[in-house]
Structure formats: structure tokens, C-alpha cells
């Protein structure tokens, strides 16, 4: 299971990653030892709270034209969904083959790009019909994915972001994620907002804000208070899922097996 793998990684202070040949072990630092006081510190202010399917092991989340598109994980349970925000009702869904563990999604043009975890395969679907249009292979694990409107930006659990060509899924660039001289690992679900990448940091209730031009961390968001506001926290696992509504300038946040979706704005801590 993914949880067990990451716990192992944490116990060796992030000395390993899903893409070992990229890791700069000399700068490896666990998240709790990275000083945050020199950069922007934010917390979420809850605007609305909506129901969310507690059986959804949320891996990816995107807002588009009034709806949420969600990717869920676990072998034998992975799906791609279109979801009504206010009710949490699944309006459209397809299931992945049981051999695939669904991960992050991104929408570019009229296509949905969905990663898989250990399978090293990305699926491309028609936005409206969910018809499979193409599939591509990549050399690492798949975690989170977002887009700058041209390229696809992918995280693999290491301290790097990788930039892919959206037409053929070839690698065009990579960027180390760092705060000062310390590398940051476990970047998970991501969302590009106003030129910055907002990303869940796996195994934490934190969102990190990254400048995609140089990989520098420019802010942190402590979202732990959301967990305290869940209607049912019994089976709630890690926070994961960031979507953004540009019209309202609000974020939608949730987690794996969370009972709620939260609409929030970020304010100074």
C-alpha cells in the first residue's frame, strides 16, 4: 500500500524517493526540520462545507466549468469522476482496470490527463465523454499533475518536478523543489494558480506553494483545521485534493476518504 511505502521513506529521513537518480541526498531534510518562518504562512478560511464520498480515495481534483473532476486510487477501486460540488453526487464515472492505481489528474484543452502510481502509465480521455484517447508511459512513479496551459507538470514523490510535452508525453524539463538549500520531497496532488503551484505534501496536513520558474518554495498553508471540521473523521486519511475556481477565487480542498469537501480562501496565519 502507498501509506506503508511512504512511512518507510519517512523513517530514513527521505533518503529515498520514487526516482532515486534525481535525488540530491546531501540536501535531504525532513519537512519538520525545514524552517518556515522566513516565508509566507497561510491558513484556510472556510467559506462552504459540502458532502464528499467517503469511499473516494482522492488522488486528483480539478475544477472546470462548474464541476469537479476527481481521480480516486487503490487497486481495484480507481476511478475518474465528474462530481456535483454542492451534493457530492457522482454525475459521470469510469473505472480503471484493477491493475492500475489512479493518481493525479489535469485538464488541458478538451482532454483529461490521469496518472497512475506504480504502473508508470498516463491515460488521456475526452473531457466530455471520458472516452480513452491515448496512453503514454513515463519513467517514474506518478503522483500529482497540473498544467501551465502548455506543458504538463508532474510530481513523482522525489524532490523534482518534471515538465512533459502534452502532445506526446516526452520530458522537456525538470526542476528541483527547494527551500533555501534544502530539498523538499513528497509533493503530491497539485494545482497551478496565478502562476504558482499549490501542492499537498504527502503524509502531512500542509500545502506548499512553489514557484515553477525556479522550484523555490514561497509559502506554506497549514490546513489541519479542516480535519477538525469533518462531519466524520473516523476513516479520514491524509489530506489530498486541491482545485481552484478562478471566478470566485476560492479553493476546494479534501482528502482521502474524507466526508467533506471544503471551499476556502487562504489568509495570513
> What name does CATH use for the topology?
Neuraminidase
In sequence order, what are the helices and strands, one letter per element? HEEEEEEEEEEEEEEEEEEEHEEE
Task: Assign a percent range to the helix content.
Answer: under 10%
| Total individual domains | 1
Number of helices: 2
Residue stretches low in confidence (pLDDT < 50, at least 5 long) are 1-34
Side-by-side strand order of the widest sheet: 16-17-18-19-1-22-21-20
Strand content: over 45%
What characteristic shape results from the CA principal axes? globular
Round the mean pLDDT to the nearest integer and report it: 88
Q: In total, how many beta strands?
A: 22
The CATH class designation is Mainly Beta
Radius of gyration: 17 Å
Q: Main β-sheet, in a few words?
A: 8 strands, mixed
Q: What structural class is derived from the secondary structure elements?
A: mainly beta
Distance linking N and C termini: 34 Å
Looking at the overall shape, the CATH architecture is: 6 Propeller
CATH superfamily: TolB, C-terminal domain
Amino acid at each position: 500500500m502507498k501509506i506503508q511505502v511512504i512511512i518507510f521513506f519517512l523513517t530514513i529521513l527521505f533518503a529515498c524517493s520514487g526516482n532515486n537518480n534525481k535525488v540530491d541526498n546531501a540536501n535531504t531534510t525532513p519537512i519538520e526540520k525545514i524552517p518556515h518562518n522566513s516565508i509566507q504562512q497561510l491558513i484556510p478560511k472556510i467559506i462552504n462545507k459540502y458532502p464528499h464520498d467517503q469511499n473516494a480515495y482522492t488522488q486528483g481534483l480539478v475544477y472546470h466549468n462548474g464541476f469537479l473532476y476527481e481521480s480516486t486510487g487503490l487497486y481495484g477501486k480507481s476511478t475518474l469522476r465528474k462530481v456535483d460540488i454542492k451534493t457530492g453526487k457522482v454525475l459521470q464515472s469510469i473505472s480503471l482496470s484493477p491493475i492500475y492505481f489512479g493518481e493525479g489528474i489535469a485538464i488541458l484543452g478538451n482532454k483529461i490527463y490521469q496518472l497512475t502510481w506504480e504502473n508508470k502509465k498516463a491515460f488521456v480521455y475526452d473531457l466530455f465523454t471520458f472516452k480513452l484517447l491515448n496512453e503514454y508511459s513515463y519513467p517514474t512513479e506518478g503522483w500529482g499533475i497540473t498544467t501551465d496551459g502548455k506543458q504538463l507538470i508532474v510530481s513523482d514523490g522525489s524532490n523534482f518536478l518534471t515538465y512533459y510535452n502534452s502532445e506526446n508525453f516526452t520530458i522537456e524539463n525538470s526542476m528541483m523543489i527547494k527551500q533555501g538549500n534544502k530539498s523538499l520531497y513528497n509533493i503530491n496532488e497539485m494545482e497551478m494558480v496565478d502562476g504558482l503551484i499549490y501542492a499537498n505534501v504527502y503524509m502531512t496536513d500542509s500545502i506548499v506553494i512553489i514557484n515553477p520558474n525556479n522550484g523555490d518554495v514561497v509559502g506554506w498553508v497549514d490546513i489541519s483545521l479542516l480535519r477538525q471540521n469533518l462531519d466524520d473523521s473516523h476513516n479520514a486519511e491524509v489530506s489530498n485534493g486541491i482545485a481552484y475556481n478562478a471566478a470566485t477565487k476560492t479553493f476546494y480542498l479534501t482528502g482521502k476518504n474524507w466526508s467533506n469537501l471544503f471551499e476556502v480562501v487562504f489568509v495570513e496565519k
